[in-house]
Design goal:
Elements lengths: L10 E3 L5 E6 L16 H13 L3 E6 L2 H8 L9 H21 L6 E6 L1 H5 L1 H16 L3 E6 L5 H6 L2 H11 L4 E6 L20 E2 L4 H5 L13 H13 L3 E6 L3 H7 L3 E7 L5 H11 L6 E4 L1 H10 L8 E5 L7 E8 L2 E9 L4 H7 L7 H5 L13 E3 L1
Parallel strand pairs: 2-3, 2-6, 3-5, 4-5, 6-8, 7-9, 10-12
Antiparallel strand pairs: 1-9, 8-9, 10-11, 12-13, 13-14
Helix pairs in contact: 1-10, 2-3, 7-9
């Protein structure tokens, strides 16, 4: 049903952005007779292409694998338990989903399958972030989906909206775009209430705002407006605004390519930088420390530098890659807590590469997670 009121009278200018996550749900990709349709995907791809041509970076979080698999083997769900059947359909349809997106772009499309566990585990979180950042650096277009063939609970919840918010925080996006099949957030259900009013902006996600959200009205989709608000809350906690818009309206997508929104903008509670620094400052630290010399301490404090192995003199404790660790300077005046941050290397590895040049890391360890012991984006001064 597409009887929602038009949003053309509610156009607003969006702030400039450099990197974004675009979440696309099954309702925009599923064909009426089963499988995937390019009908709405084409307009979304044109928005992405315009953004890329403007020098911006986009990561797509796309649902639709189960819908695609259902068209390949329409009787698969009859063969076994519901969950196993849906997981099998997701496995069948994932290649079709990536193929759909690849047909719209000359640049390579990269498949990235994640689970929430991948992003809760700090080491796997760092690996996922490094992979996505490298794909963007290489000019590829990452298309992320849940690894539905193994993520049982996540598949039941169908929360690619929330996955998109986590990915947005993972890559330090400036904005999270959520394409849906209605014009945005209304004060009532626009499908059943013709007097429903579109909310062009939400300054704060209060219980009253959540009360406006309903469930999914689409047979192919598993999320609804409430999951989109939950995603906006997660993104907002990382300082990222969320934009809801109708991915079925070509004119909306054309305007969006020029930073003009017909939809709903949900503002973050604080700036992206402030949210990141707040988390780094208050997240629990692991026992132990990375010990540095005076030169490294001065570079961290005065130049906003990353911590390089050449300025490290040792490590205490038994921390692992991805742990939050304090950086400590010891001199004749005692011990000084300089900073805290996420270590790219374990305590054992830090001891082995201490006082060495970044270019020597791989020859010493046999592998390389980058030239920084702690990257400046993962560090906050104390």
């Amino acid at each position: 049903m597409n009887a929602e009121p038009a949003a053309t009278q509610n156009i607003q200018v969006l702030p400039s952005w450099r990197r974004a996550v675009l979440k696309v749900g099954s309702s925009l990709l599923a064909a009426d007779g089963g499988g995937l349709s390019p009908r709405f995907a084409l307009g979304l791809a044109q928005f992405v292409s315009a953004s890329l041509a403007a020098g911006r970076e986009v990561v797509i979080v796309s649902s639709g694998a189960v819908a695609a698999g259902r068209a390949i083997l329409p009787r698969a769900e009859e063969a076994g338990a519901a969950m196993a059947a849906r997981q099998a359909l997701a496995a069948l349809g994932q290649a079709q989903l990536i193929g759909l997106w690849q047909r719209f772009f000359e640049r390579p499309v990269a498949q990235v399958l994640l689970t929430h566990d991948d992003l809760r585990n700090r080491r796997r979180y760092l690996n996922a972030r490094a992979t996505l950042n490298e794909l963007l650096r290489l000019g590829a277009l990452p298309v992320v989906n849940e690894n539905d063939t193994v993520s049982v609970d996540e598949l039941k919840l169908g929360d690619n909206d929330n996955l998109a918010a986590i990915v947005a925080a993972l890559i330090d996006a400036d904005v999270l775009f959520i394409a849906t099949d209605i014009d945005g957030l209304y004060d009532a259900n626009p499908r059943t209430n013709p007097a429903a009013k579109l909310l062009p902006e939400v300054a704060e996600l209060t219980p009253e705002v959540f009360a406006m959200a309903g469930g999914s009205d689409n047979a192919m989709g598993t999320g609804g407006m409430r999951t989109k608000l939950e995603a906006a809350a997660k993104a907002g906690a990382a300082g990222i605004d969320t934009v809801l818009f109708n991915g079925r309206r070509a004119e909306v997508l054309r305007e969006l390519a020029h930073d003009r929104l017909q939809g709903t903008r949900i503002r973050a509670a604080r700036s992206r930088i402030a949210a990141r620094k707040y988390w780094l400052r208050h997240a629990p630290v692991e026992p132990g420390a990375i010990l540095v010399d005076a030169g490294a301490a001065a570079a961290l404090a005065g130049k906003g530098a990353s911590l390089l192995p050449g300025g490290v003199v040792g490590a205490e404790g038994d921390f692992r890659r991805g742990d939050m660790i304090e950086v400590v300077l010891r001199d004749g005046d005692g011990e000084h807590r300089v900073a805290r941050g996420i270590s790219q290397y374990s305590a054992l590895d830090v001891r082995r590469i201490a006082r060495r040049h970044s270019r020597d890391i791989e020859s010493i360890l046999g592998y390389n997670y980058g030239g920084n012991v702690i990257h400046r984006d993962d560090l906050v001064l104390l």
